[in-house]
Amino acid sequence: MPATAGRLVLIVGPSGAGKDTLINLAQAACAHDNGIVFPRRVVTRQASEHEANDSVSPEQFELALARDAFALHWDAHGLRYGVPRAIDDDLAAGRIVVVNVSRTVIAPARQSYGNVTVVLITAPPDVLASRLALRQRASDGRLDARLGRTVDMSSASPDVTISNIGGAEDHARDLLAIIRGDQIDRA
User: Which of 13, 73, 109, 132 could be cross-linked to 17 through a Cys-Cys bond (beta carbons 3.0 to 4.6 Å apart)?
Assistant: First the structure.
């Protein structure tokens, strides 16, 4: 287990919950705080204006995986995702690392890192469907497949849940308080 003086904040939830929106607002509020970092994920699809991703080909991803370049990685929706190994240095330096990940990596992250907070961002199914339909991102694939994806979280329950309905600014303030450690209520 890497030395972890900092804290790893995992943002999880279904597609369309508004994770990237809340993360972007929280990141803007932390722009001058060097103790909080928001690493860019590596993804095998083109980045969009709503996500902070580095886009790579599947072949480049495989090479990075073979070089142990990822602290966390997963496959979802026909794509591959990775969180750069550099988060280990940030955590060792005592920083708070905030990253949007799959619910499938919660248990491995908790096994690998000592101080992990999991924030589930969710919304009712009709809200998720509406948001995904409005997003119209070709790489999202079939809407019903995204909405129908289930993840067994019985061994990876969240520490905090944000029901992202209504104004994003209010929920971003909630997320920011959780990131800063001001508000970590158990779900």
Answer: 13
Q: Span 62-87, mean pLDDT?
A: 95
**DSSP β-bridge partners for residue 82:** 42, 73
Helices (H), the chain: 19-29, 58-66, 87-92, 106-112, 125-135, 143-148, 168-180
pLDDT of res. 128: 84
In a domain, 79, yes or no: no
Q: From 75, 162, 86, select the one nearest 117 (Cα to Cα).
A: 162
- Band (pLDDT 50/70/90 cuts) for residue 98 is very high
The boundaries of the domain holding residue 26 are 7-39+93-180
Domain count, the chain: 1
Q: Radius of gyration over alpha carbons of the chain, in Å?
A: 16
